[in-house]
Amino acid sequence: xxxxxxxxxxxxxxxxxxxxxxxxxxxxxxxxxxxxxxxxxxxxxxxxxxxxxxxxxxxxxxxxxxxxxxxxxxxxxxxxxxxxxxxxxxxxxxxxxxxxxxxxxxxxxxxxxxxxxxxxxxxxxxxxxxxxxxxxxxxxxxxxxxxxxxxxxxxxxxxxxxxxxxxxxxxxxxxxxxxxxxxxxxxxxxxxxxxxxxxxxxxxxxxxxxxxxxxxxxxxxxxxxx
Amino acid sequence: xxxxxxxxxxxxxxxxxxxxxxxxxxxxxxxxxxxxxxxxxxxxxxxxxxxxxxxxxxxxxxxxxxxxxxxxxxxxxxxxxxxxxxxxxxxxxxxxxxxxxxxxxxxxxxxxxxxxxxxxxxxxxxxxxxxxxxxxxxxxxxxxxxxxxxxxxxxxxxxxxxxxxxxxxxxxxxxxxxxxxxxxxxxxxxxxxxxxxxxxxxxxxxxxxxxxxxxxxxxxxxxxxx
Lengths: 226, 226
Hints:
24% strand; 226 residues
């Protein structure tokens, strides 16, 4: 896009190492998404995500949930910071706090999350292990808008990967994470391009961005036929 | 396999039109699976599956559940017929009756079912419609062994297909059905080859049959990136 255009203003919330944050930083730098991260907020002062933001010269701060008596008060502080930064899209990137009703109202269909499973299969925590133990032959990751429940909001994009018999929790998590790093920037760019429309619980994609032609006959089978 | 070898003896239970039965008949005829269907049983005298069996000269009968006072009595009649035919693997192909505990005990890990969704997502009925309405970007089909609950048994094989914004229940069902017709014969052949081992709720594939090499880097994303 041209230098005169206005980039979508992202606020990223993270609790951990921030590899998904890094993939978004990199995609912004590379010009793959028409967005800029204007704020990184961590609820944990030791989150690696803060150092990644610092290295990329992105404004960042810790808002420690332990400093607040209630989730509502913590959420209010986060909302206030995001509004001050004129954030247009909130990105949860390994953010381990549940977002409350006030937060969702303030940013309706403007909060994205990524979940390391093919929702509605395997909501909750430790889902790579759960998929493995369940014996699923496929799992993946899901980018969705946040709604009032956990892991139930309208699905924007999904990536599928096979599960193999010799997988460990680590090998499967790594295979999924590789796709997370592709999927999240892709979903953010669809939003930045104005290509997403939420209808009930379905997220429809502007056909100009859907690229379905090359894809119609595709299917994966696991275990793969000879 | 050579003409002197012994083919796996299949019993197929169906309630409806029998397109999955047909795909198995065709795969047996083509020699793609080392199995023969020795009996088709329908619980409904008008099931198209009976005509398909008749056309293929496969022994077939109707055991009408309405003729029995209890599910246990109906199941006992079906089990008796299958045992008389020395059936080694029972194939549920659109069989709309729940299989009882006695039946499962008589054929532990020797009853397969196919379900038109990526279990554990979307168990139950009308699941193509449910996947569409949920806004899932992928769905598919699952071949699994039957256990004591519905749609929960150990997963043998799965196929994934994308869901598109312009899908109807019919178009999505057709895309899944195309994969069902590939997946079910494939899963039966893995059983016939002795390549399946059930460990807890995981079904492990003999590595000689897993063909994972060509597959390790594969992933699908929907909506597909540019």
